[in-house]
Specification:
alpha+beta; 14 helices; 68% helix
């Protein structure tokens, strides 16, 4: 590996990495300024700018050498601080202690760098300080998203962690070598620095585009959730939180086709609150709405199977789709709903059946045939409801 690295010119490598880093910084800054991003993206984009500027100062020194080296080292170390800060924001971790540790490490490393730059010039000590600081930041970036329970990890987080683990390890090795070296030449980068440059040409583009990919993946996930929420809202009755008529019609068609394919029975129950117009007129619409919500809760408790559908059919009418149930089973469930709702005891003074609000239900069951009209089952349940009403209400009738 040493012979391989000696074939590369260190300053040419530094030049290529700097140009690459500046180009990717421009992409990140443009994205931060003109595209929708999230908290933390700006810090990560600024971190890339600091890293690029630090590289430029460190190896091309447009003014006096020592100030360039010192300022370049500060900018590159602060890259780790900013990048970690951005990832913490992306991970939605609120603890400020995580950030304060980095600020403290950066302050100590900056002071040590200043001492060995301006007071006691020592290249080995500077390399140990700088590399140790970068190893600390990079290993935190790699490990903590998986070590912190509340850290929300997004797409490409594993890519981040893998590459920063490699970088952190490389900087740790460089610090170790410099610590045990008696002569660190100040004229240019050593072989480990060349290895880091070589790694940077591969890793920097991947990390930069991982930041963008992470942003767009998060945006797509939010859009998907928003669409799912919108779909749920469009299929939910606002008053009762049951399925609305649109959802009922879609589910009815789907379950009919499934029952036809499997040749199994399909049951439908249509329920109606008895004398609801009188109840509304006497007690008011708000009390009437509460009554409907109570019935909806009873229906939810009885339509427990994943394939069962409880819906507000319209006004004070409700409906159940009960795939696979026989007529006797569906009628028994409807009777249980009627009894439970009656036992709730919602006052309706002057009405029969104990001066409480009651419901009537019509039940119909059919094994679909290929030439059958799917709406005949609904018509049969509706006709059975009228039979239940004719029997004096507070009753269940099976078609």
């Amino acid at each position: 590996m040493t012979e391989f690295l000696r074939g590369f010119d260190a300053f040419t490598m530094a030049f290529m990495v700097t140009i690459l880093s500046l180009s990717l910084s421009a992409v990140l800054v443009y994205t931060a300024l003109f595209r929708r991003t999230y908290a933390g993206f700006g810090s990560m984009a600024l971190a890339q700018v600091f890293w690029s500027a630090g590289l430029f100062l460190n190896y091309f020194r447009p003014f006096e050498t020592i100030p360039c080296l010192y300022l370049g080292a500060l900018l590159m170390m602060f890259y780790g601080v900013l990048l970690y800060r951005g990832l913490v924001a992306y991970g939605e971790v609120s603890s400020r202690c995580l950030l304060y540790v980095n600020y403290l490490v950066f302050a100590v490393a900056s002071a040590v760098q200043a001492y060995y730059m301006f007071v006691d010039f020592n290249t080995c000590a500077r390399v140990v300080t700088f590399s140790s600081c970068m190893a600390f930041f990079f290993l935190r970036i790699a490990i903590e998203p998986y070590a912190t329970k509340k850290w929300r990890r997004h797409a490409t987080q594993s890519v981040f962690s893998l590459f920063f683990l490699l970088l952190g390890a490389a900087f740790a090795v460089r610090a170790y070598n410099a610590l045990h070296s008696t002569n660190c030449a100040p004229s240019g980068p050593d072989d480990m620095a060349k290895l880091l440059f070589l790694m940077a040409t591969v890793i920097t583009p991947i990390l930069s585009f991982s930041i963008i990919a992470m942003t767009f993946a998060r945006m797509e996930a939010e859009l998907r959730r928003a669409n799912e929420d919108l779909q749920a809202i469009s299929e939910t009755d606002a008053l009762t939180n049951l399925a609305n008529r649109r959802k009922f019609d879609l589910a009815y068609e789907s379950e009919w086709d499934r029952a036809l394919r499997l040749q199994q029975p399909m049951a439908v129950v249509i329920l109606d609150v008895d004398d609801f117009k009188r109840y509304n007129d006497r007690y008011g619409h708000q009390v009437g709405d509460t009554c409907l919500r109570t019935l909806a809760q009873v229906l939810r408790e009885h339509a427990r199977r994943t394939m069962d559908v409880a819906a507000r059919y319209g006004g004070e009418e409700f409906a159940l789709i009960l795939p696979g149930m026989t007529g006797a089973e569906a009628a028994a469930l409807a009777e249980e709903v009627r009894r439970v709702f009656e036992r709730v005891g919602i006052e309706h003074e002057g009405m029969g059946h104990g001066n409480v609000v009651t419901v009537s239900a019509g039940v119909a069951v059919q094994v679909p045939a290929r030439n059958a009209n799917r709406f005949d089952l609904l018509s049969a349940a509706d006709a059975a409801l009228y039979v239940a009403k004719a029997r004096g209400k507070n009753a269940v009738a099976l078609a």
